[in-house]
Design goal:
InterPro entries: Lipid/polyisoprenoid-bd_YceI (IPR007372), TTHA0802/YceI-like_sf (IPR036761). 15% of the residues lie in helices and 39% in strands. It is mainly beta. Strand 9 and strand 10 form a beta hairpin.
Length: 228
Amino acid sequence: MKHATKLLLLPFALTLAIAACKPAEPPAAAVEAAPAAPEATAPAEAPIEGVSGTYVIDPNHTNVVAQWNHFGFSNPVANFGQVEGTIVYDADNVGASSVEVTLPLSGLVSFATDFNEHLSSADFFDAAKFPVATFRSTSVESAGGNRLKVTGDLTIKDNTHPVVLDVTINRFGEHPMLKRATAGFDATTTIKRSDFGVGAYAPNVSDEVQLRITTEASVAAPEADAAG
């Protein structure tokens, strides 16, 4: 009987021994929650100090890239090159700034010869009858930091509709090669091509077209001013 009692007490004794070796837990009130890590916040975009002037767009460093969805299979692009135009920037009164651009359809490239011809045909831009597209701003507003909101009229095939460009100012400064004041901008917008008479195959080929623009523009060279 004594032997049986010893056997019954053995697990109890082992439990007490283990409990004695385990470090005591602090009372609940003494446990402090770890401080939460501060939420990361994106650094504010520093405003770029613009320089007032009339800037002539450089067609060699300007792209207007259109992208759309093709039957859900791919997202092709086309580039409107040979862009001409001027950007008037008023640093003291941004609202007095303006943009005027001409996009010759002879500079439209889709990176596929057959498709270039199709885009120029009457199915789309009918470039023989309407050789250019144009954009003329109607308002320019500061959007904070280095951003602008430029609203204007886009005309394609004699169809004119308002378009809003979300513009990022990249830089104002002296061009290291031209040695003239230069400005650089990027911009994005989305349009419905059917509004402009180029809505063939919509909606299977997406009606919405995303436009991405990058441009450099410099003040006119002194000799050009004298000649003009």
